[in-house]
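Internal ticket - ligand job 481, FE3-S4 cluster:
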Amino acid sequence: MELSQNTDFTDRVIMAAPAEEPERQYYFIDVMKSILAEKAAALGRKLTMHIETFGCQMNEKDSETLAGILGAMGYEESDSEDADLVLYNTCTVRENANTRVYGRIGYLGNRKKLNPDKRIVLCGCMMQENAAVEKIRASYRFVDVIFGTHNIFLLAELLYRREVGGKQVICVWDKAQRIVESLPRINKYGFKAGINIMYGCDNFCTYCIVPYVRGRERSRAAADIVEEARHLAANGVREVMLLGQNVNSYGKKSDDGISFAKLLRMVSEVEGIARVRFMTPHPKDFADELIEEIAVNDKICKHVHLPLQSGSTKLLAAMNRHYTKEQYLELAAKIKERIPGVAVTTDIIIGFPGETEADVDDTIDVVRKAGFMSAYTFIYSKRNGTPAAKMDGQVSEEVAGVRFKRLLEAVGETSAAQAAKLTGESVTVLCEEYKAKEGLMTGRMDNNLLVHFPAKEEMLGSLVRVNLDECKGFYFLGSLV
Ligand code: SAH
Ligand code: SF4
Ligand code: F3S
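stdout (structure tokens):
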């Protein structure tokens, strides 16, 4: 989709902009900074921004970059949707994610009537779908700027075009053109951060829209990733999470010989980094070298999120997952055997086209045998444009609902049993959140479980030892050792 022709292309500011990135965007950030400073002076207060992120860690990470760009322009963060600029970073992986966004945009439109200078910005995966953008263009004229997943770095330039054009600016690229490094970033937590190691996905699981909205798989250079980890560590980050849709295929297309296991090692060797996580590996690419690295490297968290999707070999084939029920179970067993204390977690979809009761039995059988510490369970959502949307045997909502309940019960039982085994142990946790009222800290174990314990606020961001006194099903109550 082209940039809508509603801005003045003879605009001198635009014509004087550098062609190179990221220099061009730093130029527009500066231009916007003076425009916003004038607005703020007229209002006699600082301008505020509110960012709402839907979807996965990729979007969370993108939102930190978007916050960085807006922050550099002079916006201050706010919790309120009455902020001067509201940005929704959208997700479209399931239909309900979309529905929620439309409702909220309507609400924002009403708020804008009270503050006509309010800016509403939409971006993210949903904006990569023509139908969604058309709907917004037709029915939500008050939205100011729309862009997609491939050009988030353009935010400052697009906001400037909105300022001079006075009309809705739409700029969505159907393909990634380049990876722009060195953009500003506001790190949400300070002590932990995500690092993209790759973008996009080539797997085309038949139910999934991600390859269509995030484009083909592109890995970042290992040197850039390590440099980012160094920079984060120098700014106080203790834990990093390496992010990608299929992290263990990292480097398969490049010839520098750096596998995902090697990359994990390189990042763990960065001074100041105490913990390394990764999300999401694909069972089909889980090399022994990777299991070995997790086993021997103390800094790598003993947590493997291993999306199952289904326990039925027939459905796995229809989903294009490239493994069988038996292969999955073997892999899970190997991981548990080689990495003592590891927590294996998973994602499961119920109601995929063609699913029978016997397929659900197979899935529940895997849940029992693999001993998941936790599982994210989803009811299949039909995504237009994916192969599964056209498959025979679509399962009714009602039937899927009943099966979903059955699955939830099995997941509840096994994960509670897994967690309960840890009662009485002492573990290292990263202090992530403090509730001043109760005087309670929330710590994350390396297996990703949470424990609440009495502590002081100053401990936020540090690694401490905690006793797991009482298991509450999915979390623990504990005390400092
Ligand atoms: N790349 C990761 C995560 C993809 S999205 C992976 O391969 O697992 C996160 C989860 O959303 C998926 O694991 C899947 O369980 C779920 N999901 C994706 N598409 C879906 C759909 N159409 N309906 C329901 N759940 C879906
Ligand atoms: Fe979607 Fe499959 Fe890619 Fe995961 S691996 S993002 S489920 S296509
Ligand atoms: Fe959603 Fe996009 Fe992530 S569709 S799950 S935000 S890659």
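Auto-summary: Residues 12-171 form a domain with the Rossmann fold fold (CATH 3.40.50.12160). DSSP finds 14 helices and 19 strands in the chain.
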